[in-house]
Amino acid sequence: MSVQPEDRTTIDMFAPGRPGRPRSSPYERSQQCRFNKRTQRQRDKERGLHRLEVKLDAQVVGRLDEVCAELNLARADVLELALKHWLHL
To answer: Among 13, 41, 6, 42, which Cα is nearest to 27's?
Structure first.
């Protein structure tokens, strides 16, 4: 029986024991991040959300952060509200 790095249900039974607190997950941090990103993308897809990447000038981002602080909202929320207003949605 070989150990597959993508195996999410079986831990490595032949690995030497480690002293201290047991790991909460048998996977390395990089694998955990991949799994978490995958599930986040699936949740977003189910909610009808789409990813959008934009490059903005530093002054625009600075002003955006000020508005976010005033409204106590996240950047994504403020941008969504602004775009909906601009697009008359």
So the answer is: 6
